[in-house]
Amino acid sequence: LSASDVVLGHTGAEAVIDEIRLGTYTADQLKPQWVTMEAANAEMLPIVNTVTSLLPDALPPASLAWLSSAAVSARVADLDMGLSLESPTDSLTVSARVENLAWSPVQRIPGGKIRSVHVDVINGEGSISMPSQSLEILPAQSNDRAPTQVSKALALDDLSWNAQVNLPSKTLTGTLATQHDGAVLTLRHTLQARADGAPHIDAQGEFSAASILSIKPWLTQSWMPVATRTWLSNALQAGQIKNGKVLVFGRMLCGQNLTTLMVR
Amino acid sequence: MKFLPTWPAATGVQGRVTFDQTSLSAEVSSARMANLPINKASARIDDLFNPWLNLSLTSESSLATLVNFSNWGCSVGGFRSHAVKASA
Fold first, then answer.
1. Are A231 and B16 in contact (CB < 8 Å)?
2. Residue A1: Cβ within 10 Å count
3. What residues have CB less than 8 Å from B74, skipping those under 6 apart?
4. What is the ipTM of this complex?
C-alpha cells in the first residue's frame, strides 16, 4: 500500500505525512511488516505515537508519559523513516531534523526550548546531535514556592549535545557541553531504560565559574527549599569555582528524587 | 561569604563545598573573618530541608586578635545562642 498526504492524528496535533508505504508478506496477518514514511514538515508527537504503537518497546513507558504530560511539541523536517516489524528483528531507521523543540515543566523536571536537533538512526543504532545553540530553560515547579514568586526563564549559551543511540540495549550515551556567563559545564551521561520502565541515569561532569555570581540565578530556582536558597543567595557574595564535579546517578521518574545527586 | 547578615563576612575563602543529596558540607583550608586568619574550618548542613548550620573554625593569631574576635562574636545574637568552645 502506498499513500500520499496521510494525516496522523493526535490530541492537539496533526502530522501530514507526504508519503507512507506499508508492506506485508503474509496474507493472514493484518499487521504491516514494514512501514516507511517521508515528510518535509510535520508535527513530531503524532509520528512518535505512531512509531510507539507499532514498536511498543521503542521508548520506555515513563518517557511516553513525560512526552504527553510535558506537552512536547516540535516540527520534524526532512523525515525519512523506516520500520521493520518482523519479530524478533524489529528495527527503526530514521533520519530527521527536529526544529523548535519545546516542552513544559512537569513537577521537578524543568521545561525547555531548543532550536534544532538532528537524528540519524540505522537499524536501531545511530546518533542524536545538537549543534551549538542556546537552550531556554523554564523553571521546574516547586512545592514550596510562594504563589507571588515568579520564576524567570534561564538561558544556556553554546549548548551542544552528541549522543549515541542503541535501541536494542535501550541506551543513550553522550556528552553535553555548555558555557554561560563565564561558567563552563561538561557532562558525560548514560541513560538506560530498565525493566520497570523508568530511565536510569549515570552522569559525571566537571564545571567551573569565573564568578560565583553567575550561578546565583540557578541556585535561586533550584530544587532546594526556599529558606536554603535564600540563605545561599545572600551568603555567596564573591568568588570563583574551580575543579567542580557533578555526579547524577539513579532512577529518573517524574516527581521522584534521583537516587544520588552530588555536586562538589 | 556572609553566613548571616549580622556576622562579619568571611573573605579569601579557599576550600571545597559538597552538595550530596540534601546535605551540604564545606572544608575550608584558609580564610579571614573579622581580621582573624582562619587556618581550617568546616561547615555542615545535614538536611537542607531542615537547615541547621554547624560551623567550626581553627585559628592561630595573637591573643589580642582572638579577644577582639571573641568580643565581636559575643556581641552577635547568632553566636550567643550557641555553645562556643575555645582552646589556646
1. no
2. 9
3. B80
4. 0.77
